[in-house]
Amino acid sequence: MVCDGVRVSAAGRWIPNQHGAWAMLTVPYAAGVLLGDPGWAQLPLFAAWLAAYVAAFHAQQWLRLRRLSRNPRAAARHVRPAVVLGGCTAVLGLPLAVAYPWLLLAAAAMAPFLAVNARHARVNRERALLNGLAAVVPACGMLLVALRLGGGTLAEGLAPALVCLLYFAGTVPYVKTMIREKNSAAYRKGSVAYHAAALLAAALLNPWLALPFAVYLARAAVLPGRGLKVPVVGAVEVGCSLLLLGFVVAVYG
């Protein structure tokens, strides 16, 4: 899974420096846990989920740099993190798969989206809009997984998962309008149009959801072009993600 601004942490070169990705990975999962009955099995699942993400990130960077970089070390430095974190994913995930075989179906459902991310990494188009949207779907799908592991049903999780999808899909074009496409009028119009449609869809799901999605629409319409620094953009998105979590749990809990 990949997002705008991908680069490996200078400190350890193991943990991806993708602030938006961490919110996307944790908020739907946390919502699923809180909407169900929290249990111990959800802890190793969350650890396996994060380890799988980091392993996939490094595998995709290896694919990209192996093809593009003239320096073989550039790609090689991603091999060890991919193997180690992939191994951690297996160690954590296999016992869970034995206890809950349906987790294998969940993993299989996410595989096509991972394949899209891998393809974009290989051709050095990680920042493509489609690639970002492909990363959002399995992240929001983890709400269903965490909820079911906590005793909930897929039917109970569909609406909150859709709410998460409406929000996080919107962050893909919005963040582009703040950083890489900050001078693109077309991206701004598209982002605002999407957020207006998302506001309507959220209100149809539950009228209370119009409140946070009105905030998301306002930030998509007002903040681009104001020269906000990247840490400020990130802080705003953290706040918006927490707002989403609070409303999803309050509305569907």
Question: What are the salient characteristics of this protein?
Answer:
253 residues, mainly alpha, disordered N terminus
Task: Please provide a written account of the structure.
With 253 residues, the chain is an all-alpha fold. It has one domain (19-252). 77% of the residues lie in helices and 0% in strands. The chain has helices at residues 19-35, 42-68, 72-76, 79-99, 102-122, 129-149, 154-178, 185-205, 210-222, 230-252.
In short:
By secondary structure, the chain is mainly α.
Strand content: under 5%
Specify the helix fraction band: over 70%
Radius of gyration: 18 Å
* Average pLDDT figure: 91
Low-confidence stretches: 1-11
The number of domains is 1
Helical segment count: 10
Would you tell me the structural class of the helices and strands?
Answer: mainly alpha
Distance between the termini: 29 Å
Q: Largest sheet at a glance?
A: none
- Give the total of beta strands: 0
> What shape does the CA trace take?
flat
Order of helices and strands: HHHHHHHHHH
